């Protein structure tokens, strides 16, 4: 069957009392050589059953999962999965199959798509899942085939630029819950750290995680196409050998700067980095019939041809292979000047025809430098260079992570991740992540003291966070920067954003890719912090409030005050009426003081 739309497969995953989670139905078949009811899985998608039917699902009547699957057949485009889970009592079924031996039946209906339309797919899928379960006969699969046809016909020409991409995501609720800590989450991801989100059920987990990502311009629409490239699990001996031979990414950071050079822009204001033939693309993704098969599966060829970045499959290949270097190195590589004219002509042709940045890919034992176009991300970017190339080159985005994928946290080929988990085993192994985000309590636990220092918000950051919280609390119009000042020198600008933080960001892959290309629209953007300015008494209050609520010492002080107030109450009851009048007055004064303190702290800082 030819695939003519964004939806690749409709899949039903069930829980078998002996076999565990397994695929029970797929349309079209995951392996066309086999039937719709085949339980065989492509090697790249062997975790599909555990992602679609999440761990601990039996504790809930229904749930929703967003997840990412690796691409197949060498294609580098992420497969976006949305799964709706439900359970029903076995006695309510009209047709009860012989292998149903438990009191409840647990199943998920799943959509595998080429478009990151999480909320839109969820809305459609929930209706069909409800209807499928209402049949009380899971052999009635016609409704699932109709769902496949309907989704492909209705989503075939869907644009990724509209608000429907963010359907179901609420940045306002995120800010109200995490308050100023939203800025910490943003910075953690910008620095490409290992960040683990934790909560149950899964719908709250994936909703919070994807909402954080939506704060990055263009990230959901165009920035996740390379976010799920990971290798199948290897043996311990293979992993050990690979670790010995793989250079550390931090050791291969290039320190050379490159002058900004413009990339060709399409008519729609976006470009695919490294793709010179793209014109007029406005975020609409066309789909063409399949032309290739891999393991019996179809590989859809999009009209937008994405430039493939060299993979990290070989230990000899590292991030430094694609670092932009100073053009003067071109001259040093040929001291006799034998190839000087050729190199100059090639550089001139590149600059004049396509206005592309010059980079040099090192060639061992040749003495020659080869010009290649760019530090490239392969992402479809706008005139500001957005989205940033964060989820590339082994930095994963896994909205929900199954326990079977736990090994990825320590995989040497994975340089970082933003992942969500509901199993407590993930949270307990703190050494495998840089930060754990406990969504229930809005608590961000950062293990490394140096990283906490880097992420410590500046005064300008605290002003921004305070303004943001007040903005969403009071439900103002979306005018964030009215009346803010823009004056300041470069050193002051760095200090406003945080000197340590800026230095750390400059060492990330996404910064080097972004900085190596010229983005013309940035000329209209002032580089100053929107909330810079002179210090005032309110800034001192903000800093005090932040310290009390986030430092260990501040938490201890708060706990002591709570404990003291509790002891006062208990002691008052013990002494009874003998000293009742005076002690009751003292107790009331302490309680009143503590209530006033906590309330003012909440209003000022959060």
Model description:
- The protein has 19 helices and 16 strands.
- The model is unreliable at 235-268, 275-286, 288-293, 295-374 and 478-489 (pLDDT under 50).
- The radius of gyration is 28 Å and the shape is globular.
- The strands form 5 sheets. It has a 5-stranded antiparallel beta sheet. The chain has a 5-stranded mixed beta sheet with strand order 13-14-6-15-16. A two-stranded antiparallel sheet has the order 7-12.
- The two termini are 55 Å apart.
- By secondary structure, the protein is α+β, with helices and mostly antiparallel strands.
- A hairpin with a 3-residue loop joins β1 (7-16) and β2 (20-27).
Average pLDDT confidence is 74
**Could you tell me the radius of gyration in angstroms?**
28 Å
Strand content: 5-15%
Strand tally is 16
Class per helix and strand makeup? alpha+beta
- Main sheet strand line-up: 2-1-5-4-3
Low-confidence sequence ranges: 235-268, 275-286, 288-293, 295-374, 478-489
Shape descriptor reads globular
* Percent range of helical residues: 25-40%
Q: How far apart are the termini?
A: 55 Å
Largest sheet: 5 strands, antiparallel
